[in-house]
């Protein structure tokens, strides 16, 4: 079939179906969402390949991936069909009655920060909405592109490293959720830290630290040390912020963490926090969503409720969070 050049040559009823096939990147997954048999969707995909003169979905090793033409097509379909749905059905997101499910990938730090206030807000404002938190995994880009993950919460300094490479960055939208200072934590009986530790002693002391995906450059702490030409005594690096206070309390090591972690952990662990003897950039937590979701009212609501969660947390617990203007 020759690629179409005119909209009238396409059966418009197939466009929402094609959008879901491209969202999922899989005939089987799209069939489950649409409640249509896989053979029927395979036939639709065959017709669409003919319409557009492009394979749209191709195999890459064990995975099925969208072609560049398909990625561009999906973005256009999301924008156009969302606008049509809004115009025809006056669709809007009503959190009080919505039964939508959202999936957000994040670090354990963000889970600890958001879980309680979000649960309380959902109870009063969106009682039927379900939000799932999941850890950031190595499949995050594929899950993000397919719509399996709606949003990622990540330190902005880590965008461009690890999972979000330059190619993935070209398909995302971001907004800062909050800023907070980085602080040094040590055991409560650490007299040297209480008195004000020197930089020389600080670097000599054993440290436990955070980094993600076995890549030191995905740590704010390690990047800053490298930039300043400094080397500290790293005893253990792990990909869990929330485990660091436990390690500090049990081993006497020092750690650098976002202030909210120190405040939270000091309620039940014998630790103290202090200003580190060198300056670290603020921890900037960013919301990341796919450009395909930019026009969705539900995503605007999701961003809004996450922002209000942290504003409420800051008032209740004095975490010294600051927010973008």
Helix amount = 40-55%
Number of strands: 12
Largest sheet, in brief, is: 5 strands, mixed
List the strand order in the largest sheet.
4-3-5-12-6
The mean pLDDT is: 83
Which band does the percent of strand residues land in?
A: 15-25%
The low-pLDDT segments are: none
Q: State the shape.
A: elongated
Taking all Cα atoms into account, the compactness measure Rg is 24 Å
Give a description of the structure:
The chain is 43% helix and 21% strand. The chain is built from 13 helices and twelve strands. Helix 1 (14-24) crosses helix 3, helix 1 (14-24) crosses helix 4 and helix 5 (108-125) crosses helix 13. It starts with 13 loop residues before the first helix and ends in an 8-residue tail after the last helix. The mean pLDDT is 83.
Task: Summarize the structure in short.
The chain is an alpha/beta fold and 325 residues long. It has helices spanning 14-24, 27-34, 38-52, 68-89, 108-125, 140-146, 166-169, 191-195, 199-204, 220-227, 244-251, 259-265, 297-317; strands at 57-60, 63-66, 101-106, 130-135, 151-155, 172-180, 182-187, 206-210, 233-238, 255-258, 271-274, 283-290. Helix 5 (108-125) links the parallel strand 3 (101-106) and strand 4 (130-135).
Features:
325 residues, alpha/beta, 5-stranded mixed β-sheet, 12 strands
Topology:
Layout: H1 14-24, H2 27-34, H3 38-52, E1 57-60, E2 63-66, H4 68-89, E3 101-106, H5 108-125, E4 130-135, H6 140-146, E5 151-155, H7 166-169, E6 172-180, E7 182-187, H8 191-195, H9 199-204, E8 206-210, H10 220-227, E9 233-238, H11 244-251, E10 255-258, H12 259-265, E11 271-274, E12 283-290, H13 297-317
Parallel strand pairs: 3-4, 3-5, 8-9
Antiparallel strand pairs: 1-2, 5-12, 6-12, 7-10, 7-11
